[in-house]
């Protein structure tokens, strides 16, 4: 959690001190994937049973989550990270995030 996105104006405000997640990732020697702000639309989409990237398509939060998903997919696809043989690659990165999420 990194802040709060106002659903009226789209402005993001910091609720907590910045850098804690980044510092922890660095300390634990793991990749820092990103900062996810609180968004009232998240609770609403969960209550409605709609996927966030569908309910808030094009929103700042959806874009942030898509970027984090791409980082995760890239990590999973990395032979060096997980030692998968070429034939065992989980996902080929490329194209549109919506296409990747549908697979």
TrEMBL record:
<keyword id="KW-0411">Iron-sulfur</keyword>
<dbReference type="GO" id="GO:0016226">
    <property type="term" value="P:iron-sulfur cluster assembly"/>
</dbReference>
<dbReference type="GO" id="GO:0005829">
    <property type="term" value="C:cytosol"/>
</dbReference>
<dbReference type="Pfam" id="PF10609">
    <property type="entry name" value="ParA"/>
</dbReference>
<keyword id="KW-0408">Iron</keyword>
<dbReference type="InterPro" id="IPR019591">
    <property type="entry name" value="Mrp/NBP35_ATP-bd"/>
</dbReference>
<keyword id="KW-0547">Nucleotide-binding</keyword>
<dbReference type="InterPro" id="IPR027417">
    <property type="entry name" value="P-loop_NTPase"/>
</dbReference>
<keyword id="KW-0067">ATP-binding</keyword>
<dbReference type="GO" id="GO:0051536">
    <property type="term" value="F:iron-sulfur cluster binding"/>
</dbReference>
<protein>
    <submittedName>
        <fullName>Putative ParA family protein</fullName>
    </submittedName>
</protein>
<dbReference type="InterPro" id="IPR033756">
    <property type="entry name" value="YlxH/NBP35"/>
</dbReference>
<dbReference type="GO" id="GO:0140663">
    <property type="term" value="F:ATP-dependent FeS chaperone activity"/>
</dbReference>
<dbReference type="GO" id="GO:0046872">
    <property type="term" value="F:metal ion binding"/>
</dbReference>
<keyword id="KW-0479">Metal-binding</keyword>
<dbReference type="GO" id="GO:0005524">
    <property type="term" value="F:ATP binding"/>
</dbReference>
